[in-house]
Amino acid sequence: MKSIKNQTIIVTGGASGIGGGITRKLIEMGAVIIVVDINEEAGYALAEEFPNQTTFVKGDVSKVETAEEAVATAILKSGKLTGLVNNVHASRQKPLLEHTQADWDLSFNTGFQATLQFMLAAYPELKKTGGSIVNFGSGAALSGSAFQASYAAVKEAIRGLSRVVATEWAADNIRVNVVCPVAYTEGVQDWKTNFPEEYERVLNQVPLGRFGDPKEDIAPIVAFLLSEDSQYMTGQTLMADGGDIKLR
Ligand SMILES: NC(=O)c1ccc[n+]([C@@H]2O[C@H](COP(=O)([O-])OP(=O)(O)OC[C@H]3O[C@@H](n4cnc5c(N)ncnc54)[C@H](O)[C@@H]3O)[C@@H](O)[C@H]2O)c1
Question: Is the Cβ atom of 179 under 6 angstroms away from ligand 1?
Fold first, then answer.
């Protein structure tokens, strides 16, 4: 794989879960990571563990100031920004008829709005470096899983936006792709507790027979999209899901 070394990359939600695995893998590969998260404890712990390669920005991704601060932090630390990973997305799983406006707002603001604001804030710097953006979709949205109305609708909005931005910003040599992961995280652990039958159903339909590991299974695919190895790829959706969904 071509090098991630010396890249400076913003990872939203980079303190734990899939984002935590991405942060650790990219650090291992020699990148500098600007970790943006509301989880202060995990964020500062990472920055303490890797002081040269990590700076923690504490903030809510749904606020535009957080995106601006993250980009400014990258420039302060490295003088450049080469990549952006829009990984955060908080949502509530419940039947459509039980969704409140607050549920719709949570999903829209942390998923779509944050992805949009971070892309806009990063654009001037990514244009200088020919950078790469990785956004997050979900198999649950592609397949229309029950109880995922606000989540699925926003995930597909992110994919739609990503395809348009890939086309518009190709002239600036900025690439935008989407990853749909399946990985075992604390969030999935909670989901398993609340919806054990849904969990078993998903697990049983993964041909590779297991949930992915954030660092070993999902992060390398994100790293590929951030590296020059994928330089001829933009606007695509990559399934990092053990073979569950085959896109055509
Ligand atoms: N885990 C899976 O199997 C799976 C499946 C499909 C899609 N995804 C997608 O992958 C991405 C990561 O999923 P995950 O399971 O690691 O999520 P997670 O909820 O476990 O972790 C998200 C991280 O984001 C942080 N965060 C949450 N809200 C925030 C906010 N408003 N501002 C800043 N930080 C915030 C959390 O503190 C945490 O560190 C999401 O986009 C999710 O929808 C995950």
Answer: no
- Distance of alpha carbon 110 from alpha carbon 37, whole angstroms: 11
> Ligand 1 mean position to 176 CA, how many Å?
19
Contact of 10 with 61, CB cutoff 8 Å: no
Which residue is listed with tokens 């990853």? 179
Q: Which residues contact 180 (CB under 8 A, 6 or more apart)?
A: 136, 137, 138, 139, 141, 142, 237, 238, 239, 240, 241, 245
Ligand 1 pocket residue status of 10, Cβ below 6 Å: no
Q: What are the two backbone dihedrals, phi and then psi, of residue 94, each rounded to the nearest 5 degrees?
A: -165, 165
Q: Which atom of ligand 1 is nearest to the CA of 42?
A: 39
Q: Tens digits of per-residue pLDDT, 54-80? A: 999 999 999 999 999 999 999 999 999
Cα torsion 94, 99, 101, 105: sign: positive
The ligand 1 atom at the shortest distance from the C-alpha of residue 91 is 43
Q: Which overall architecture, per CATH, does domain 8-240 show?
A: 3-Layer(aba) Sandwich (3.40)
What are the domain boundaries of the chain? 8-240
Report the predicted TM-score, pTM, of the whole model to 2 decimal places: 0.97
pLDDT band at 1 (very low <50, low <70, confident <90, very high): low
138 lines ligand 1 (CB under 6 A): yes
Tens digits of per-residue pLDDT, 130-148? 999 999 999 999 999 999 9
199 given a catalytic annotation: no
16 Cβ closer than 6 Å to some ligand 1 atom: yes
DSSP H or E segment with residue 124: helix 114-129
